[in-house]
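A further point concerns the way the authors explain their paired sequence and structure data. An entry of this sort, consisting of the sequence and the corresponding backbone structure tokens, reads as follows:
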Amino acid sequence: MFNIKIIFVIMDKNWKIKRDVIRHYDKIARIYNTLYGHEQELKIKEILKILDLGKCDVILDAGCGTGLLFNYIRNSARLIVGVDLSLMTLKIALRYIKEKKINNISLIRADVDFLPFKNEVFDKVFAITLIQNMPNPTLTIRELSRVAKDFSSLIITGLKKFFSKNDFSRLLLESNMHYLFIDTDENVKCYLTICSKNKRALNKSINKRIRIKMLVVK
């Protein structure tokens, strides 16, 4: 009984954090793109400079928010699944999908710590500006890893004002990730990484036509 009580206390604390995050993003959903659109697009463009996407890829956008990523990858994948807990941001994303008449994007309201998918489903997993909002980032990354295929790429970013580079590296290692940092200028407010469960998969994910300075594989 004592162990069960501890588990419930932790779960309740974690849900309180998530509920506060939901309320925050629901509140700013209509102005999110105005507030953060440019900043997010800088990250996306830097990532897509070096990441190879396949026309047959099934892609997960974890914490998809208003769907800013969709505009950049909708013609480069077979299926994109956007997941978020904020209902209001998902409504903005749905409006975009309908306006553009896109038929290869599905939206699901779900907790990224408990994704409603089988193991090893996705070819690419994006988690852009997500991890700092999660009460247990290691749990989150391991869940993203669970639904990624063995040779998949996971694009995980860490907000610089929340993580030091060493702390973010440690988090990825604790989550059993092999990773590369993408070298960016100071205008990008996140550490950008390409990760994989399989070390050999990292090099296969990188666009060979683009020469970019990257740190050594961990």
